Amino acid sequence: MTPSPAVSEDPQRTAEFEARIARGESIEPKDWMPERYRKQLIRMMSQHAHSEVVGMLPEGNWITRAPSLRRKLTLLAKVQDEAGHGLYIYCGTETLGVDRHELVQDLLDGKAKYSSIFNYPTLSWADMGAIGWLVDGAAIVNQTMLAKASYGPYARAMVRICKEENFHKRQGYEIMVTLSAGTPAQRAMAQESLNRFWWPSLMMFGPPDKDSSNSDELMKWGVKKKSNDELRQRFINLTMGQVKAIGLTVPDPDLTYDETTGDWQSGPIDWDEFWRVVKGNGPCNKERLAARNAAHDEGAWVREAALAYADKQAGRGTEAA
Amino acid sequence: MSADERSWPLWEVFTQAKDGAPHEHAGSVHATDAEHALQNARDVYARRNEGISLWVVPSTAITASTPEDMGPFFDPANDKAYRHPQFYTVPRGVKVF
Lengths: 321, 97
Prior knowledge:
The structure holds two protein chains of two kinds. Chain A contains 13 helices and two strands. By secondary structure, chain A is mostly helical. In chain A, a hairpin with a 4-residue loop joins strand 1 (256-258) and strand 2 (263-265). The longest helix of chain A has 29 residues, at 152-180. The model of chain A is unreliable at 1-5 (pLDDT under 50). Chain B is α+β, with helices and mostly antiparallel strands. Chain B has a three-stranded antiparallel beta sheet. The model of chain B has no long low-confidence stretch (mean pLDDT 88). At the A-B interface, helix 4, helix 7 and helix 13 of A face strand 2 and helix 1 of B.
């Protein structure tokens, strides 16, 4: 992809484009779109795809140690789904005229961002519960909104993903339900995991609206329909009932219920921590990138063999070596 | 050229949800050849029995109408109301229709 300088765009075409957005029309790959819309979507969608891919790592950590065959089958299926989700979104991003190969390279080189939540470690089995329940739960809130995004290929990928994420959330919650009803040690494990994942889950929705540099533009163009803070509030409201149902507590002494609005008001979020992790200094940033690079390098022979086989079948020989 | 410098070609995937239904576009996959594309399409787009039949087509083989053409290309259909049943009158009280 060649970085385009600030293009001066036809104001009339831009106005027509914005009118289409206002009418709720879906923008398709071959339609005219402002360069900035294209760039913002490539940024947002590729980050989303990278998040799905890196998201396999914290859970992959527990596949060999799942406590039963049922849990192991579930975890394998979930991790495979995350790979599939990455592919759906890369495929959608490619419709904007960028090659997946370049996007993946940016991830491997540490130039691309992905969701910060995956830079936290998975220290206990309960984390498989907390991640499915809270992290996938937060992702569903976000992706349900994105299923109505103005860019057709993105919206369609989200519809497919949301259907699958519901299984992810329920299996995670089931783990938490089971541990909460278990021995005191199991119950403590569930609570400790919730303590660690609660705040990072709230941060998944991104910085507060007043500090979110991309939000206005994304909302103007119908990519996002709700703001970070609105989505975060929705997630807290949805989740609190589930927390209470299994007798756990969230690590927020300032949390209050507002009778008039029906909202759970959280205490202050530590945005310094958020920016620290975004900027590469979370507990596992380096480990995640190293693991991703190692997996990519170790798969090189498979990619080479597949190409060699295709060349041979096509009778083109291997002169391109 | 190393494998990393050469991307696998892109294929468009069409899935048939159930017997008698049409094949619909599901998305795309990268693959080295048609057989590989079918396997990838199965793993990516049919993990939950979403398809009983799959087609994969090289993306470069698809010719599509362009958004710019939308008006002139489709307007022969715009002024032919006589192709629809509502164009015709039927005596009042006749209920066969």
